[in-house]
Amino acid sequence: MFDYQFFIEVLVGGLLSGVMYSLVAIGFVLIYKTSGVLNFAQGAMLLFAALTFVSLVERGVPFWLGAGVTLVIMVALGVAVERVVLRPLVNQSPMALFMATLGLSYVIEGAAQLLWGTQVHGLDLGIKDIPFEVGGVLISQFDLFAAAIAGTLVTAFALFFRYTRTGLAFRAVADDQFAALAVGLRLSRVWAAVWTAAGVVALVAGLLWGARLGVQFSLSLVVLKALPVLVLGGFDSVAGAIVGGLLIGAIEKLAEVYVGPLLGGGIEAWAAYVVALAFLLLRPSGLFGQKLVERV
Amino acid sequence: MLLSKSLRTAALAAALAIGAALPVYADEQFFPLQSYRVGPYAAGGTGFFGGFIDYLNLVNIRDGGVNGVKLTWEEGETQYEVERGVEVYERLKNHPGVAAWNPLSVGIAYAMIDRITKDKVPLITINHGRTDSTDGRVFPYVFPLLLNPYSETSGIVNYIATREGGTDKLKGKKIVVLYHGSPYGKETIPIYQLLADKYGFSLEQIEVPHPGNEQQSQWLSIRRAKADYVVLRGWGVMNPVALKTAQKVGFPVDHIIGNVWSNSEEDVIPAGDAAKGYVAITTQASGAEYPVLQEIIKTVYGAGKGNLDDKKRIGSVYHNLGIVNGILNVEAIRIAQQKFGKRTLSGDEVRWGFEHLQLDPARVEALGAKGLFHSINVTWDNHEGDGRVTFQQWDGVKWKVVSDWIAPDWASLRPTIEKSAAAYAAEHNIKIRTSDDTAVSE
Amino acid sequence: MTTPIRSAAVRWFTPNRFGLAVLLITAYAVIPFAGSDYLLDAVLTPFLALALAALGLNLLTGYAGQVSLGSAAYLAVGAYAAYNFNLRLPGLPFLASLVAAGFVAAAVGIVFGLPSLRLRGFYLAVSTLAAQFFVQWALTKFGWFSNNNPSGVIDAPPLAVAGLSFSGAVGRYVFSLTVVVVATLLGTRLLRSQVGRNFMALRDHEVAAKVIGVPLLRTKLLAFGVSSFLIGVAGVLWAFAYLRTVEPAGFNLDRSFQILFMIIIGGLASIRGAFLGAAFIVVFPLLLSRFGAALLGNVFDSGVLEMSQRIVIGALIIGLLIAEPCGLIALVDRVADKIRRRVFPPQSRPIHN
Known about the structure:
The complex is a heterotrimer of chains A (296), B (442) and C (353).
Chain A: H1 4-35, H2 42-58, H3 63-86, H4 94-116, E1 132-134, E2 137-139, H5 141-163, H6 165-175, H7 177-182, H8 187-213, H9 223-233, H10 238-263, H11 268-282
Antiparallel strand pairs in A: 1-2
Helix pairs in contact in A: 1-5, 1-8, 1-9, 1-10, 2-3, 2-4, 2-8, 3-8, 5-6, 5-8, 6-8, 9-10, 9-11, 10-11
Chain B: H1 2-21, E1 28-35, H2 42-63, E2 70-77, H3 82-92, H4 106-119, E3 123-124, E4 142-143, H5 149-164, E5 174-180, H6 183-186, H7 189-199, E6 202-208, H8 216-225, E7 229-233, H9 238-248, E8 256-258, H10 265-268, E9 279-282, H11 291-301, H12 317-340, H13 347-355, E10 358-359, H14 361-366, E11 376-377, E12 390-394, E13 399-401, H15 410-427
Parallel strand pairs in B: 1-2, 3-4, 5-6, 5-7, 7-8, 8-9
Antiparallel strand pairs in B: 9-12, 10-11, 12-13
Helix pairs in contact in B: 2-11, 2-12, 3-4, 12-13
Chain C: H1 4-12, H2 15-34, H3 37-63, H4 71-88, H5 94-113, H6 121-127, H7 129-141, E1 154-155, E2 160-161, E3 164-165, H8 168-192, H9 194-204, H10 206-211, H11 216-243, E4 245-246, H12 253-266, H13 271-296, H14 302-323, H15 328-343
Antiparallel strand pairs in C: 1-4, 2-3
Helix pairs in contact in C: 2-8, 3-8, 3-9, 3-11, 3-12, 3-13, 4-5, 4-7, 4-11, 5-11, 8-11, 9-11, 12-13, 13-14
């Protein structure tokens, strides 16, 4: 007898986890879209943001002030990365840029721990995580809240890119870097804006993931959850990141519960990649990704 | 006053002059420390090595060393990575007067077994390590002191039995073991099965892939299985996430029993309220009320030589484990000195000391550690030393002991251990020692 | 007037070959006698193993243009395969297990290289992560691979080839050195053959390569196969000559990145670059940590030093990528060229290959 209620519970849990993956994936997409960089430092930025915020709050700084100060620091970091790392590397191969972001992640991780120590911290956002029941299915309050935040963030970005000059410039750069340069757009300003946006995403994702995992070094590992989402959704599509996240979340959980026992369990770590891969073989640039011929 | 000072200076100079004539070998016993203060497991590393160093400092400051033999150490950062541990081993192994190695890492310990056996220096893996190294007949230099993974398993099952009112009440109960997807996590699978068959409880063992930051599906399965107890055999970030996810699916937290690597403050603090009521096994109680800790606070921290940056962590689980580890190392040296003389000992002599490391509760009390840990009784063929375990419950702020000292069922585990050790001996052409082979080699 | 034979010999004996000869003589005749156990066991042997892995990845990424983030998985496959050949076929000479392990790694590499037929760039790079996670999972999951050892960690048997025991630091070093030298020679020959030219054609322009008749499918899979073969052999060295123990956790994503760093820092599509990159990534952190401990060890604890080193290494990687995008090898060549010009002022311009 197939237990539908349980199935739905797993599905819902998976979708809600998927939102959390999307949140991390969006940070990647923003940067990839405009500068063609797979920014592996996203995880380190996430850790840095969460650690900074928690450490400030633990030192007695009020919640919102702490969030504000962290935001300012993340923006400064974003601008600095554009200046010091990206600008000198302009026109380098995507591989070199990728490696540079790996180097950057060392720097940020080291600095974060040097500044704030290696202790683990709890992070309480004030949302109780007592589940409630809908038709016999338990739903997590916290995950719903996280989904709402992610939704708000995405809407805010969508509006920003549609209705502001910087947003327009962003889309122009994403479409065609050279054309954008030719019409006199300042690439560096767009990049700085994008890295700032990625910093904001890192802060939000860092806080939400930090509340789930505790703020500690392992927080930077959540990027590994975002990578199959990117493959599935396309590296350059915000919509893809969201749909991809939901799909990966759901598939991963269903696979673990229903296929896992056949293989001995613990398949979550690679199941997502296999699914994403299988899909890619049908559609090589992801769900929503642009079809591009590219070389590395 | 002035005179006495200059007299003392003269005496010191004379002593130095005489000392210079003696072999250059100062009376020092050296501890190479493969510590990890950075990376994912830094919280455990800073606590454990901090406690260890704090105790060594206490012995140096308070007693002037062990019978006048000063304790020294040097740290090499490993980040918990095996090859960095090996690098530190190769770098420090030729330092004069190495007493013992204490890596606190299964992977590094494994890589060192061949090396330390060849170099004849003890390898201490307190509370962890290779289970079959308990068999001193095959592993003369390896000491999984106090608790090996099998004993831990048995201790946890015995504790659940006491909660239920006897081992006969385990029949028909459902226990789920949630284990980390690594060799460490999998090590106890056959032992839980063995005990399930013995006591008649039903058992399900579920893997959480490394690093364990997502456990929704596992906990939904646990809820569906209607488990009575969940044993958490976790590691790092997996622990707080387990507690949080348990809350998310409505599993009662006081029916989750953590193993020895899921029992620290660092495992529960990130989980916040979700951890309140969680129970975990330990070999050493936490808290700073024990005399030895008070002395460390007064003597070591008072002199500004404390190793922990954050004084709030004094008396935390990992810090106390480091202190107990310090006590065991120092006492092994003291015991060996009684036989070989009050001087720098060779690694093999320290090994002899560990093989005679017998501290009964009275001796533990004399060391100021009554209640901190129970006792130990290492012999040449039992390198674990029959450590007792206790259980502690997290009240949201600190751990509180909630059980007596419980003895694991060593007798029923020993055959499995001996079988595995014998297989190792056969594979490596090792002659199985008898009690006649325990003398120290020249 | 020189005889033709002598001039041929002179022509053959280029500065590069002269340098190589000096290097080999030093590696075989000087280092084993002059080097300390620490230098051999903790620095040179891991350097050799990782240099071979970097060479393998460089064939794939540098020469054939296919990016892989799964190198650590092939290292693991090689290590575990050699262990099992050694364990389950008792009569098999160790060298045979070494080569067989390479072939097993090659087979696994080809399977996980299949997506390359459809994917490019980062899509391919991320999809190779599937190998990374799957292999680690499988090795932990199935006890058979580690001979049902309760903790899944296996110890390597002692090294012996044809009755010759390579125990001891010197033995392990010489063994690794020989394997690496032979593998490098084979790799170099392969690159100078038609296969190597196909690799480069594939990298430089896939469509063009197809037009001039390079069999894409075969070439791509061959690149994955050869590369994983070399990485698999490197895994055997890593496990048997260096660590002498194997656990799946040691072959994680960080290791893959480390190998990728080596070829990018050393120089893509350069054999010497792979060695230079490996030397940099293996030796430099050790030097930095010795230096830091000696200089500041009394002021800060090892944790602070380690984190500062992390920052320095990260910054240095970025700096190198900015200053020398073609890798250390370009830097070395330039400096060597400068010295050569100063010592032998050029009559005719040297030809670069």
